[in-house]
Amino acid sequence: MKIASYNVNGINGRIDILLQWLEESQPDVVCLQELKAPDQKFPIKAIEAAGYGAVWHGQKSWNGVAILARGEEPLLTRKGLPGDPDDVQSRYIEALVDGILIGNVYLPNGNPSPGPKFDYKLAWLSRLQDYAAELIELDVPVVIAGDYNIIPTELDVYKPERWADDALFRAEVRDAFRKLLAQGWTDAIRRLHADERIYTFWDYIRNAYGRNAGLRLDHFLLSPGLADDLSRAEVDTHVRGWAHTSDHAPVWIELLDDLKKGAE
Q1: Can 106 be counted among the known catalytic residues?
Q2: Where is this site: Transition state stabilizer (predicted)?
Q3: Burial (CB count within 10 angstroms: exposed 0-12, middle 13-18, buried 19+), residue 258
Q4: DSSP 3-state assignment of 238?
Q5: Contact present, 70 and 99 (Cβ < 8 Å)
Q6: Which of 52, 199, 219, 248 is catalytic?
Q7: I need a labelling partner for 136 at 20 to 30 A (CA). Which of 16, 77, 117, 227 fits?
Q8: 131: annotated active-site residue
Q9: pLDDT tens digits, one per residue of 109-123
Q10: Domains in the chain, ordered, with CATH?
Q11: Separation of alpha carbons 29 and 13, rounded Å
Q12: Annotated binding site for Mg(2+)
């Protein structure tokens, strides 16, 4: 089972890029972030024509998350992260696909820090920790994928010294990520590429992609029991080099087929 995550940075403006990548990569499940479209503007007809069912949680001009499943309809289980009924930002969606619970996250950027946006990010991370602890207790396999807007370690950024005070790399944020892992979650990329310098994001400015001046912001967290069924974890780096593409590249993992037994 191939599960992918892709911050599309505007789904309608980059629908051709998304469809081209779907045709090339053929993932079974896709978590999309930063749709930048309200629910009624989600391009469901184009997605269905590509062979995918979808559930989505949109927002005009900002945020927005979706889960696609090839040849079937994902079973929606949640829209929105619990813990703050006043939070109206569309940053979390969850669905069951072939016995695997898929959580799709788009964490706040948090800049400038310190400040209200950084405080919101830390509060959001606290809510995610609480909910992730609940998910890990479920008797089903769980994957929490998406754009975490977190650089976990110095290995995940091209020049760590330049990012020390950035909300993506501040100590509080990296500590929150470590606390998630301490619950029992596995960072899929690092499970299979422990010491490699791997990036998933390159800014549009200063030829960042050409210089490979990147960041690893997009992650897959696997619940206990899934780590041993992880067979591949890769980044489609070349997609970042396409014309008019997102500043993120798609990231994907492959899980052994016998995983589907989890909820059967």
Answers
A1: yes
A2: 149
A3: exposed
A4: helix
A5: no
A6: 248
A7: 117
A8: no
A9: 999 999 999 999 999
A10: 2-263 (3.60.10.10)
A11: 21
A12: 7, 34, 147, 149, 247-248
